[in-house]
Amino acid sequence: MALEEVQQVGELVEGESRRPLAEYASELDALSRSVQTSPLRLKALVRACHHALAFFDLLGVEAAFWKIEYAERLLDLDRAAGSVATAGDLLDADLAAAGRNVAATGTRSNNLVRVKRGIELKRALFHLMLGQIQQQKNRGVVVSFDGLVAMAYAAVFARHHDKNVQSTVADSICAIPVKSVSDFFATINETDESAAAEMHKYIEAANGVISYIDELFASRGLSSDF
Q: Where is the signal peptide (predicted)?
């Protein structure tokens, strides 16, 4: 799987009736169910998370760098799956090669955590979007879509970035062309109601996958908070 292929899989074709949120939630749900009884397989993780690439195209040209970086991390995990089938095997291989320094930039364990954090970001965003749907029904305060993205970023990624990166991300978020939650749903071929069901499914699935990866690191006496 080449980088170009990883990127193209996530692209939304104009006029196409794909439902990337539903596809992502379904794949992540299957992955979450599988890790209840079996190790987390890297190929399955990459297959589920490649659906996230479609969302980058909706965030405007400023998000192109994020998409490329995320795709590169998925590509690295996909390549790793050629020799280490599971996330546990990957972590053990890094431990053998890098000792306790698995958090170092460039290690596959680092990329695994970054992909997990991407799952966490969307979990946080979908929680906020579900709250916004309820606010709209109750005629409460309406927060713009880019405002919700900023809140999700602050909750998940901001503390891992220095001030310069935070500033760059803030500028990129302000440039997001989609401004309302309902407009975002329409862009991905969902209604408020159908999107709510898929976001609930995603959140439950994300909880299972995130917990599995965190517990995997803890079982080796390591933290995944880096």
A: none
